[in-house]
Design goal:
This protein has helices at residues 42-50, 78-96, 109-116, 142-163, 168-171, 179-189, 203-208, 227-234, 249-252, 272-282; strands at 2-7, 13-19, 27-31, 54-58, 102-107, 125-129, 165-166, 177-178, 213-219, 241-247. It is an alpha/beta fold. The strands form 2 sheets. Strands 1-2-4-3-5-6-9-10 form an 8-stranded mixed sheet, with helices on both faces. A two-stranded antiparallel ribbon has the order 7-8.
Length: 283
Amino acid sequence: MEQFDIPVADAGVVAATLWQAAQPRAVVLLHPATAVTQRYYQAFATYLHGLGLHVLTYDYRGTGRSRRGSLRDCAVSMADWMEEDVGAVTRWAAARFPALALLAVGHSVGGHAIALSSATPHLRAAVLVAAHAGVTRTIRGAVERLRVWCVMRLLAPLLCRLFGYMPGRRLGLGEDLPGPVMLQWSRWTTLPQYFYDDPAMDAARRAARVRLPLLVLGFEDDPWANRHAMDLLLRPLIHAQIERRHVAPVEAGLPAIGHMGFFRQRSASALWPQVGNWLLAAA
């Protein structure tokens, strides 16, 4: 296991970890979810490495090992994560391993990046896990919808103005986040079609460029990435070859999966082979 920094053209670096297989069949990039560090994906990365794949994990700028200095001075946005950070990691891997197929697994916003990044053509295939258009009104369950509305519409603007960043750790919401990341995300949740309604993103045109095979995984007990919210994200991917699987916990013999559970060790035997085998077939 090798740890190092990958420079980002915009500014700064992303801290990455590489698991190298002895006789690699392909390279897999793990694009994380919002406010989730690469440590969360270590067990899944180890599993993929055991299948004979090089695996690269990393932290977006302003999070985990990529956090440098005060977050008050971090001007990176969520759009920058998807274009600059993901682009830097993808191009680094393509240059480092030019003879190997380049694959990706994107969790939540990591899946958004696969849909929108200008570096996606470097990939041969990709998996989107619990990736959805995060519009507040699509969240299933009135209590959860109200909770997210309060965080996004009330707490986020107030706390970012007060602290200069989003203090997620203090609130039990995962990692602290740069203010521009949180505020851009908050604004997108108010738009009917999420970032597709943000003229600055040009997101529908970018999604239409994707021509990859995509495996899209969703889970019946995920209140955020429910079928309707996933439909909103996927609809503009008109040229991608999409295979969708929606798994109920009872079908997998699990008590719950939700938005985060796929990558937990308890899902290893029931769920991970679905992705591992698909990636090997795509390599």
